[in-house]
Design goal:
With 120 residues, the chain is mostly helical. It has one domain (2-119). The protein contains 6 helices and no strands. Helix 1 (2-8) crosses helix 4 (46-79) and helix 3 (21-35) packs parallel to helix 4 (46-79). It is elongated. The N and C termini lie far apart (37 Å).
Length: 120
């Protein structure tokens, strides 16, 4: 995902200079991780490369922000002793997020929170 961030910072002409097999594979992985759909761009052409990188970067930014907002809410609720509500918020994010990457982050935190609940 770091490579996607670096590619997204480039101007279109510079980005086309990075249209390599390695970067195409990285973009395909990003499509899988961010959008959860490998069929979106089965073939990535040089003509679409810039648009795809921009689209993925925007989607990553949106889900990163939603993830941050969710975690802020979860932390606030947990801090007020409302763990059940915090778990509900986190489960809602996991259920509706199309990004396997962010769902995996959510599931990891959820497991940790559930384990802490069992201990108490």
């Amino acid at each position: 995902m770091a490579l996607l961030d670096r590619l997204a910072e480039l101007e279109p002409e510079e980005l086309l200079d990075h249209f390599t097999t390695e970067n195409i594979q990285a973009v395909r992985r990003a499509i899988e991780e961010i959008k959860g759909d490998v069929t979106i761009e089965a073939t990535i052409s040089s003509r679409r490369f810039v648009a795809i990188v921009r689209e993925l970067s925007e989607a990553k930014s949106i889900w990163s922000e939603k993830w941050s907002q969710t975690m802020k809410t979860v932390d606030e609720l947990s801090g007020k002793g409302k763990e059940d509500q915090a778990l509900t918020v986190l489960r809602g994010f996991i259920r509706f997020c199309p990004s396997p990457y962010y769902r995996a982050l959510g599931k990891k935190i959820l497991r940790k929170m559930e384990e802490e609940e069992e201990i108490q």
